[in-house]
UniProtKB/TrEMBL annotation:
<dbReference type="GO" id="GO:0006790">
    <property type="term" value="P:sulfur compound metabolic process"/>
</dbReference>
<dbReference type="InterPro" id="IPR014756">
    <property type="entry name" value="Ig_E-set"/>
</dbReference>
<dbReference type="GO" id="GO:0043546">
    <property type="term" value="F:molybdopterin cofactor binding"/>
</dbReference>
<protein>
    <submittedName>
        <fullName>DMSO/TMAO reductase YedYZ molybdopterin-dependent catalytic subunit</fullName>
    </submittedName>
</protein>
<dbReference type="InterPro" id="IPR000572">
    <property type="entry name" value="OxRdtase_Mopterin-bd_dom"/>
</dbReference>
<dbReference type="InterPro" id="IPR006311">
    <property type="entry name" value="TAT_signal"/>
</dbReference>
<feature type="domain" description="Oxidoreductase molybdopterin-binding">
    <location>
        <begin position="105"/>
        <end position="277"/>
    </location>
</feature>
<dbReference type="GO" id="GO:0030151">
    <property type="term" value="F:molybdenum ion binding"/>
</dbReference>
<dbReference type="InterPro" id="IPR036374">
    <property type="entry name" value="OxRdtase_Mopterin-bd_sf"/>
</dbReference>
<keyword id="KW-0479">Metal-binding</keyword>
<dbReference type="InterPro" id="IPR005066">
    <property type="entry name" value="MoCF_OxRdtse_dimer"/>
</dbReference>
<feature type="domain" description="Moybdenum cofactor oxidoreductase dimerisation">
    <location>
        <begin position="309"/>
        <end position="413"/>
    </location>
</feature>
<dbReference type="GO" id="GO:0020037">
    <property type="term" value="F:heme binding"/>
</dbReference>
<dbReference type="Pfam" id="PF00174">
    <property type="entry name" value="Oxidored_molyb"/>
</dbReference>
<keyword id="KW-0500">Molybdenum</keyword>
<dbReference type="InterPro" id="IPR008335">
    <property type="entry name" value="Mopterin_OxRdtase_euk"/>
</dbReference>
<keyword id="KW-0560">Oxidoreductase</keyword>
Amino acid sequence: MSDSSAPLTRRSALGLLGTAGAALTLGRSALAQQSLLSAPAPTFSGPGPLDAWNGLGPLIALPQKVPLIRLVDRPPLYETPRSYFQSAFTPTAAFFVRTNLSGFPASVDLGTWRLKLSGNVNKPVSLSLAELLRDFEAVSVNAVMQCTGNSRARFQPRRPGGQWGNGAMGCATWTGVRLRDLLDRAGLKPGGVQVQFQGLDTGAGAPGSGGASYQKSLNLDDPVLDECIVAYAMNGQPLPLVNGFPVRLVVPGYFATYWMKTLSFIRVLTQPDDNFWMTTAYLQPDNARGNTTPQAVKDKTVKLRPVGSMPVRSFIVTPDETVKVPAGLPMTVQGLAMSGRGKVNKVEVSSDGGKTWSAAKLGEDHGRYAFRPWTFAWTPKKPGQYTLAVRATDTSGGNQPDGAIWNPSGYLWTTVERQTVTVGQAG
Ligand SMILES: Nc1nc2c(c(=O)[nH]1)N[C@H]1C(S)=C(S)[C@@H](COP(=O)(O)O)O[C@H]1N2
Ligand SMILES: [Mo]
């Protein structure tokens, strides 16, 4: 941003305030977003800066939400601004919003709404929210939900779909009833292979999708079923409608595509689900990183499988590129890490663009599925341009590649994040 010299002067002054400066700096990036409101809406999303933390769009508030970065209106894709990731839990009102179909309910009448379990079960079950609250033990999990296409804007060559920056993710405390308890109530009959989830939304989906309902299924022998929660609360509040009121499925460690909003139908299937959203969309190359090449796709040699758990990632939240740091000033580089495949056990930071690395300090442990905050004390000695980088590992042996990955749908981005910082003379 080189709009005028006044904010630059202000930024330099704020930089001298240390941590208070960091908070104010984030205020500035919100201001930068705000100024987009008066600019004409972008009609072309690419190529754009590959290292921009957030996607590009105006700040717009949906009902029950604070202004978020609107990438697309219908179906809605709203990204969480970077400043909301200063803490390990993402405020409910700032949580990103994404819906695959054009018709999302504008209200849900709890007088008639029921969660229905059917299919290959002993006894079909229909439960009101009052019954879910009264008849089942309440349990909570801290877990990150992340869109499979988070950070898609980084892909080169570009992939179609929402050009997300890093903000299609968030961490919340999810409270509700165990999926297992509901399945036990209905009773599984022998011969089931998958359990299918569906919400209340309808309407046209991606071109060629055929179906007008969004359905996702998990294998009945997938251990993640024991972790799943049908959640009626998020950070101790009812879910905003756009985030799934009255209940949504929480699948800890898995990508958000399975986290069904306005969950209303649970069906036990005796055949693998072959609907569009299971067999055409949300497929990744059949390797842990989901990595392949455009050439391999052209040659039709890429084997695909449904996406599942989230590989390890880490993010620099502050400083951002608007900070000007005076040389010699001790500062804190701060951010988050996460993995759906094991606990984050190490975060390392580089201040020379990835040549040398030092251990960051891990912050409070909110559980293996939650964001793990980290901090790194840094005193840049000399003026100049610095490139900060961060990488994390997890207990499953997962680590982050320092180079692009690529796949046809723009999924599973997990590359080392970088942040350029300008350091000036202190006097
Ligand atoms: N009912 C319903 N649930 C859904 C979807 C949807 O289109 N309909 N999209 C999924 C995808 S792809 C994402 S990224 C998350 C987004 O959840 P959020 O809007 O609460 O952030 O919801 C998941 N659950
Ligand atoms: Mo998604």
